[in-house]
Structures are given as structure tokens and as C-alpha cells.
Amino acid sequence: MDFGLIMFPTGYAIQPNVLAKEAELRGFESIWFPEHTHIPASRESAWPGGPDLPKEYWSTYDPFVALSFAAQATSTIKLGTGICLVIERDPITLAKEISSIDQLSQGRFMLGIGGGWNAEEMANHGTDFKTRFGRLRETILAMKTIWNNDSAEFHGQYVDFDAIWSFPKPLQKPNPPILMGGDGRSTFDRVTEFCDGWMPIWGRTTNSVNGNNLEEKIENLRSKWTNSERGDSDLDITLFGVPPEGEAVEKALSMGANRVIFATPCAEESVVIPHLDKCAQFIEGY
After folding, report:
1. pLDDT digits (tens, 9 = 90+) for 7-28
2. What's the rounded Cα separation, in Å, for the pair 31 and 79?
């Protein structure tokens, strides 16, 4: 099992390059940064994590800028978005950003994606909440077309462009790993069609949309994956936000997860470094 860290990188917390270097020194496999371009002051959309939205949600650095600093300070740790709101980004520009960071980091980038929860935030980017997953699908498919063709074109309902030239291509072929977040009715369809794995949030996947519990859902996804056109490739199961506790880690392992990601406080070094030390204790045992 691999172990990663997730933190909101902000101006008042440990800086992303320092965090990445300290995580790499402690043997972590990956580091993940989330994304919100802004939070509308209306706060009409309910945050799935509870009634009070933490201020880091409207204070975070751009994930690709933060990951670039992390890449420069390290040599082996993988660099992931957890998650990238692709529905709020131009697909041609995003494809270029991902290709660039994958090349400059020597193939260490992983793309965590999701549909998002804040309808007002999406609307400010011109995205309709009700059609966000259709846009997400076309954005990923369009980027894959750009990454794997010297001359690329795509014609969909939400993404449409004639033939373009766009280089460099990602170092990882055919594309950097793409992990789908969320737990909706069609999540597993998205995973098997255009992703490489599933990245659910620990503790939020207890409803009966895709099964009665997380373990059953993973079994259902594995069965669907095996019976799909992707069945010959490996399925990535990354559990996001697992608490750094022995029982939770053992449970994740028994479920067949190949990676767990520990949540790291958005705080200064004096708080974060001891937390890393605590989390790092698990690496030695696996």
C-alpha cells in the first residue's frame, strides 16, 4: 500500500515546496492539493462536509502553481490534484498545464477529478450545475485526444474545436493517471469509461447508491471494471482522507485499496511537521 498526503496550500500554512520535501523525506508516495478558484459570498450551496466551510476553501493557491513548487523541491514524490475542478477550466489550457507539469516533474503527475458541489462557483465560470458531468466527460475525452494525437480535434456538446497542434505531450503514456472522485449513481460508469481509478472520500461513502458500504462498493466497481473494455489494466483504488489510525488503515487494506491519503491540517510548520511524523509511522509497517 502507498501513502499520500492532502492539504489545502495557502499563504498562511506551511508552503507547498516545504511540505512536499518533508513528505518525501518521510517516505510518502504522493502529495495532493485541492482546488477552488473562489467561494461565492452567497454561500447558497451546502458544503458536504458540514455547516461551516473552513476558510482554506477560499484561500488556497492554484493547485498547478503549488504543485510546480512541490515538483521543484523534490525528485520522487508523486504530485496530484485532489481534486481538480475540470468543469471550471478550459480543456485546451488544462491539457497544456497537465502536459507541462508531467514533463517538468519527470512523469510524476496524477489527475484527481470531480464534479464539484458549489453551483454558484461553477456558474461564475459559465458551467451549469445540472450539466457538469457531461462537461466533465467531454473535457477529459478532449484532453486525451490532445495528449495522444499530433493533430487533435474534438466535437462535443460542451467542448468543440477543430484540429490543433499542442505540445509538449505528457511524459506518461497514454496519459497521467486519472482518478474519479465522488459517489454518485454514474460514478462507476465514468471510472470505467475514461478514468484509471476511484478516489472516494473516507466517511462519506456510506449510502446505498453503489452498494451498502464502501467495501461492497469497491467489490462492485472491481466487477464492473473486470467486465469492461478496461479489464486488462490495473484499477487504482485510492481512499481519500483516511484517519492516521491503525484500525482505519487496516480496514482500507482489507478493502483492497492500493493507496490511502491522510488529511493534513492547513497550518504552519510547527503543527504540520508533527502530524507528518505521526502519519509516517504507518509507512514503515507496509
Report:
1. 999 999 999 999 999 999 999 9
2. 5
Cβ-based neighbours of 127, under 8 Å, separated by 6 or more: 87, 88, 135
| Nine-digit cell string for 268 | 504552519
- Domain carrying residue 41: 2-285
Instruction: Please indicate, yes or no, whether the overall pTM of this predicted structure exceeds 0.70.
Output: yes
Q: Tell me the pairing of strands 259-263 and 2-6.
A: parallel
Q: Which residues contact 188 (CB under 8 A, 6 or more apart)?
A: 198, 210, 220, 221, 224
Q: For residue 212, what pLDDT band results from cuts at 50, 70 and 90?
A: low
Other C-beta atoms closer than 10 Å to the C-beta of 3 total 22
Q: What is the largest CA-CA distance in the chain?
A: 52
Question: Would the pLDDT of 119 be above 60?
Answer: yes
Query: What's the confidence (pLDDT) of residue 17?
Result: 98
pLDDT value at position 3? 97
**Rounded distance, CA 23 to CA 12, Å?**
19
Q: Count of residues for the chain?
A: 286
**Is 180:195 a contact under the CB 8 Å cutoff?**
yes
pLDDT of 209: 39
Based on the structure, what is the number of domains in the chain?
Answer: 1
pLDDT, tens digit, for every residue of 170-194? 999 999 999 999 999 999 999 999 9
Q: At 44, which CATH number? A: 3.20.20.30
Paired with 237 in beta bridges are: 198
Tell me the C-alpha distance between 14 and 23, whole Å. 12
Calpha distance 179→191 (Å, rounded): 8
Q: Rounded to an integer, what distance in angstroms lies between the CA atom of residue 279 and that of residue 273? A: 10
Distance from C-alpha of 130 to C-alpha of 87, rounded to nearest angstrom: 12
